[in-house]
Design a protein that fits this description.
- The chain is α+β, with helices and mostly antiparallel strands.
- The protein contains 5 helices and 8 strands, in the order αββαβαβββββαα.
- The chain has helices at 4-17, 53-72, 98-103, 161-166, 175-187, and strands at 21-29, 37-44, 82-87, 108-113, 122-131, 134-139, 143-148, 152-157.
- Strands 7-6-5-4-8 form a 5-stranded antiparallel beta sheet.
- β1 and β2 (37-44) form a beta hairpin.
- The radius of gyration is 19 Å and the shape is globular.
- It starts with a helix and ends with a helix.
Length: 188
């Protein structure tokens, strides 16, 4: 099994060198259907909270070069075949860092606790923030709950109109032209 902590330790400096912030490193089954795993790296430009294609490509090249050098030196970072996937966290982003629970307070979130957590396992409602390691969420069914961040299995924002309004695209230039060209072709 691959060591996520070690991968984070190696990947984060590459992310920082490019001026980005690491959101998440995860290993999951690849969507390519070839039996390989995917090493998923989510990062963001702190100025925008997103990455554009060129930034993803630059980060992918940097991480690939670092991993290739480590593997050529004999360090096994990931067992078996894998694909590298570098992306922006997206609108309905995962909440992985302490600051995420503060930045996105006021938005709808879904929090899943680790197996064996003694209280409720899934919370969905308005995120209120974090204090002293405790995340506060106003659950739609049970009201306000404070849950320990270190017991959260996963947390992510839920797509809503308010979230879309708060997450403006980086560049919309040309969007009207694309729509017009599509419409013209549909009329042919």
């Amino acid at each position: 099994m691959s060591d996520i902590a070690r991968l984070n330790e190696l990947i984060e400096p590459e992310v920082k060198t490019l001026g980005f912030e690491l959101v998440r490193v995860a290993i999951m089954p690849s969507e390519a259907g070839d039996g390989a795993n995917a090493l998923q790296i989510m990062a963001e430009d702190p100025a925008t909270g997103q990455l554009v294609i060129e930034q993803c490509a630059a980060l992918s090249r940097a991480v690939s070069a670092m991993m290739d050098a480590r593997e050529e030196a004999g360090e096994l970072l990931i067992e078996g075949a894998y694909h590298l996937e570098v992306s922006s966290p997206g609108i309905d982003r995962p909440l992985t860092r302490e600051k995420d629970f503060t930045i996105w307070a006021g938005h709808l979130a879904r929090i899943v606790m680790v197996k064996g957590y003694e209280e409720k396992r899934v919370y969905k409602g308005e995120l209120s923030g974090i204090s002293d390691g405790m995340v506060t969420i106003v659950d739609n069914k049970t009201g306000e709950a404070r849950v320990p961040r270190d017991q959260i299995h996963s947390a992510k924002l839920v797509l809503t109109d308010a979230l879309i309004a708060a997450t403006q695209p980086l560049d919309t230039s040309g969007a009207d032209q694309i729509e017009e060209e599509t419409e013209e072709k549909a009329d042919d």
